[in-house]
Amino acid sequence: MHRLALCVVVLTASSCVLASPDFDEGSAATATLSDSDATGSDASTSATSSATAASGATSSDAGSSGETSTTGDATTSTSESTTTGSTASTTTTDPTTTDSDSDSGAVGCGDGDLVDDEECDDGNLVGGDGCSALCHIEPTGISLSGLGFSMKGGMDAGNGQNVGGWCPDEDVMGWFAGDRDAQSDNWLCRPSFGCRTLTLGADLSVSSVASASFGPFDGGCFKPENHWERACGPDEVLVGFRGRAGTLIDQLVVRCAEVVITEDANGFSITRGEVKELPAIGGDGGNAFGPIDCPIESIAVSIDLNIGSWINSVQMTCKNLALEY
Questions:
Q1: Residue 145 in contact with residue 169, Cβ under 8 Å?
Q2: Residue 14 dihedral angles phi and psi, to the nearest 5°
Q3: Rounded distance between C-alpha atoms, residue 236 and residue 208, angstroms
Q4: Which CATH fold would you assign to the domain 141-324?
Q5: In this predicted model, what pLDDT tens digit does every residue of 37-62 receive, in sequence order?
Q6: 131: which DSSP letter?
Q7: Taking the model in full, what pTM does it have?
Q8: Does 76 score more than 50 pLDDT?
């Protein structure tokens, strides 16, 4: 016996049922409607799931890579257009960087143009050629000006005499010397001192060379022995003393310092550096005095003494340091 296939389309879904020659149309129709309802539900769910999956895949792919998606050529074209626009934006930024680089270069000190607060500009940033690396005119010498005094160490005795000596113009004190009286508790006597000329190097370092000397001054030392001398270093000058004294000088300590030239944004300046002390001469009698130094911007140009048989007091005359151009 042959069977007939009957297909009924309901809405968008279809279902086929097999009927025997004696099939009941009503029951077949009922079965078909029931199957169609179920099929429609499954199809809707399937269609929704497929659409959601496709949409998610497309959005994910497009967002992460900007490449061709599964939504079609139109989406591919739009995505490529967006990528091209991004590239164009990057390309637009490059010429700005290139222009900035092309305009770069040192402007100011060292470019050969005298501008702003520059005192000079010789087209380089090398010092020692008359124009410093900060574009200041470099000094060519050292001079001394003004007049001042240090405090006095010890006391003047009634029977003493004032002795001393001035260094030649522009020279400074560099050393101090004398003897100790072996017959009178090694008190200090027969003082002498010497001067130095300051010299300025091409690198603006300061050194000194010996010049004039004074003494010894002898007030009646009974048995001068144990000669002593305290000389500042070749790049130093005498700036002060400290010691011990009662009615006489029992002990002296010579104090020295370098002469230092520095440069900052405002130009060059000259001053003395850190003070260094030479070994003490004398004993431990009397009371401590000093330091008795020249003012910070000055150095000693003479030593003034009061002596009898021994040294009663010591004082210095000072001048201010200055630069010549």
A1: no
A2: -130, 155
A3: 7
A4: Vitelline Membrane Outer Layer Protein I, subunit A (2.100.10)
A5: 333 334 333 333 333 333 333 333 33
A6: B
A7: 0.65
A8: no
